[in-house]
Amino acid sequence: MRSAKGSQARLAIALLLVVALATSACAEPVAESPSPTANFIPSGTIDWQSCPVADPVTGGNPELLCATITVPRDYLTPNGPTIDIAVALLPAADQANKVGPLLLNFGGPGASGINILAESGRGVVPAEIGNRFDLVSWDPRGVQRSAPVECLSDSEMDDYAATPGITDRPTAADWASALNDAQWFADKCKAGTGEMLAYIGTTASARDMESIRIGLGVAKLDYLGFSYGTALGAVYATLFPTSTGHMILDGAVDMAPTDESEYGEQGVSIQGALNRLFAWCDADAACPFGDGSSRAAFDVLIDNLDDQPIELEDGRKLNSVLAWTGVIMTLYNRDYWDYAVQGLAGASEGDGYLLSLLADAYMDRGEDGTYNSNIMEAFPAISCIDSPTTPSIARYKAIYEKFVSQAPDFAAGHASSGLLCGVWPYTSADPLPTLVNGAGAAPILVVGTTGDPATPYAWSQRMADLLESGHLLTYVGEGHTGVGGKSACIDEAAIAFLVSGTLPPENTRCND
Asked: Exactly one of 452, 469, 471, 491 is catalytic; which is it?
């Protein structure tokens, strides 16, 4: 039986809430930088209504308002077919002192902004921001309610998510198998979605943001984007600099990547977070897992789960792949580390409930076995339409070999993730700009977290440098992204910037 280290967990191949964008010379050639207007000027206001009661997510939030806007499927041919983009608004709690609307994107690519806003409410942002702003989010094209990508049935997704991917020390046969797996998934998406796959890229979604701005009736768009949402924000600021208001990009992606940053550096970042989790457990005598040797105990547990998966009440089995996914989920927030060790302790005693619950949360899978959103399909589809590449095993094998010593659990999985985009069946109808620099935009605040597992801190540094008006704010801590309850210092700076445009002092580092 093949080893089941981290690179075998399909969901560790490319962490959700981060995108692999290829705009550098390492990617295949793309078209010239798109024009800002693309010959389409949206008009009209958004007609907000109570959300449909029948919607299993939004129907339970009486405060939330919903709407759709109609936009061109392809902004470059504005008189062609159209699609509907779903949007939602949660009114400011303090309407008397409201600043205006704030557009939010929670990452992915492929996260349903409407689901997150409906389920988490104003808790998705610092309290003062929820008080002073109408919170607006949307399902970007390709996502859930907006011309969604469709690849696998729920049962097929269950099987896919629990099936081992490439091993952590792959042979030539393992690389060939990974390429075959990539082709299978790409073919399923082509069959399920068809030519709409060509129209779901980040540039088109940034144009949708401009349509939302005009529908909101504001001269400038205030925006808070997390993780992949930073790519959307940076592209928006590049295409529509004079429409860019107060913009925060939290947990930035690398908008000018190399092979190494696209397929290697993230693995190093997640490996570091995992290592710190085990070190934290070993330093605490009260840690319920490992008796001071948590990594060794983890390896034993993972090997045992390959041979004897744990039966779950819903009929599934907790194997090594799902266990890995559950642990990875906890690395997004320092407060979740306790769940990781509790879940591992439970699994070591034959109870797989907590680890399976964490894995399901990561995949947005509901208790009834259905998936609450299509993020598991939209994520690779949007990533690959933005990232034309090649199916060259030699290319990714070389990246793996460069990073395996720094990320032994994840290097193979991250490097091999490029194979899917190499066999993707469509290219973007509206490719990324050749240079994403926000030239002419107002100051943009970039927030980077030093221990971020999904978007390495260096990426935020690069984003701040790449954007002509970029300004870096650093959170010294663990977890993915910084705004929203992790640090009073970060939240206060975010509030001041969004409300009044006041930037924190240069080189500010927040340690609380």
From this structure: 452
pLDDT at 85 (0 to 100): 98
Lowest mean pLDDT among 30-39, 148-157, 162-171, 496-505: 30-39
Considering its fold, how many domains does the chain have in total?
A: 1
Residues with Cβ < 8 Å from 59, sequence gap 6 or more? 51, 52, 53
254 belongs to a structural domain: yes
Q: Is residue 294 part of a domain?
A: no
For the question of residue 154 being annotated catalytic, the response is: no
Amino acid type, 343 = G
Q: What are residue 470's DSSP bridge partners?
A: 444
Distance CA(499)–CA(401), nearest Å, equals 47
Tens digits of residue pLDDT in 257-304:
999 999 999 999 999 999 999 999 999 999 999 999 999 999 999 999
The residue among 486, 489, 478 whose CA lies nearest residue 449 is 478
Active site residue 139: no
Asked if residue 325 belongs to a domain, the reply is no
End-to-end CA distance of the chain: 46
pTM assigned to the model: 0.94
54 lies in which domain range? 49-148+198-258+434-510
- Active-site pick, 246, 414, 471, 480: 480
Amino acid at 137: S
Helix (H, G, I), strand (E, B) or coil at 136: strand
Q: Mean pLDDT, to the nearest integer, of 410-420?
A: 97
CATH of the domain at 94: 3.40.50.1820
pLDDT digits (tens, 9 = 90+) for 318-328: 999 999 999 99
Please pick, among 7, 112, 205, 227, the residue that the annotation labels catalytic: 227
Identify whether 64 is part of a domain: yes
Is 55 designated active site? no
